Fold this sequence. Notes:
Elements: H1 40-73, E1 87-93, E2 96-102, E3 107-108, E4 114-124, E5 131-143, E6 146-157, E7 166-176, E8 182-195, E9 206-216, E10 222-234, E11 240-249, E12 252-260, E13 266-270, E14 276-280
Amino acid sequence: MKTSLKKAKITGVLLLATLVFVACNNEDSPAPLEEGVINVTELNTSDEAELIMEEIVNIEEVVYATDEIMAVSKSPYTSGYLPDCVTITTVVSGNNKEKTIDFGDGCELPNGNVLSGIVTLNYSKNMDMATKTIDLSMQNFTFNGVALEGSASVERTRSNENGNPQSHITASFEGTWPDGGSASFTGNRTREWIEGYGSGFWGDNVFQISGKGTYTGKQGNVFIKETTVPLRRELSCRFVVSGILDISRNGAVASLDFGDGSCDANGVLTYPDGTSKEIFLRRFDR
């Protein structure tokens, strides 16, 4: 099932580190989940919020991993994910290293998303540490026209029990969409880099994601979202390709199955009453 590759406030750290959010086709969606629990607009906005989170996390991962790999190999390295329109500046002060990632007035990434403004990372300059904390903040940052502000904290482990890099992210964001509506998201996520680390090509990178968080939609409705089967994100695809996410509100729980690993924009939503429907995961109308 899957097709490949503004004013906001973050209080803590990366949920759009928590959940993968759903979107439905306006033409073919009765009230998803159940009447009064969630509507089509909220589903669409929540999925776009997830995309923003994933992209911000990818940026952090790419920049930090580049630093890490070069420190170990003592040779130049790039994954090719960030285009030439991105300017990265490094400032070392005492034991701290600051990376400023500047997207200027608008810079298009390989997947077609357009970002502007600045993402800043701060972490220890000691690249031999097995685990460290990476603090992330944003200034005048927009993602496909959605304005964001905020900060994030990432606990980065070089090698977990599976021998893979892993990040535990805690975050809280608020974003303002071009239509003036605002949505927020807070929570925790664990993101394991299971394929492609250090390969030199971003297109083979694969991540396994689990976590739980809270999404508050433009209409003020609050939803709890939690992965029950880890989500699989392949950077060569704009969509999560497999895994299951539970979505709950006021005791009613629905689940979204992202499929069998194929790269497409579809998922199967199972409503609280047990009935299921295939839905379309729309991201910025692409």
